[in-house]
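1st attempt posting a full record on here, be nice pls
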Amino acid sequence: MEVKEENKGSISMVEAKLPPGFRFHPRDDELVCDYLMKRNVRSLYQPVVLIEVDLNKCEPWDIPQTARVGGKEWYFYSQKDRKYATGQRTNRATATGYWKATGKDRAIQRNGSLVGMRKTLVFYKGRAPKGRKTDWVMHEFRLQGTFIHHSPKVIIVIFYSCHLF
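the predicted structure (as tokens):
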């Protein structure tokens, strides 16, 4: 699993400063505007709560040990990896499986303006089209609207759906 070295120690320092009972559980518009947008436009204020993970080099069950923010959900930044150098399709394959989109993308608005989109994906073990569906779910947040030109990174939220019900 590839994790940027400079960010490894930041998470535990941030969590240690939170009073008991506080949880990192931002709304969709907060993830897009207060984290993703500031990360992509290289704002002076960049919260160190989220680390960067290369999704193609790790399996979903490895995420809890790496992205330690959140109890049942794990948040992190990831670089979009194109399937083909000149194409628009995103590569979502790992060594043991792949992430498959499910449903339609949801618009994220703030103050009546479109700022981002949320895509839901499910992890399948094996190779398409014969992969076996698992209980691992991902929400991928990306910038949209006037901010789309500043979007090399996305925010990923992964959770194991059996924990939520």
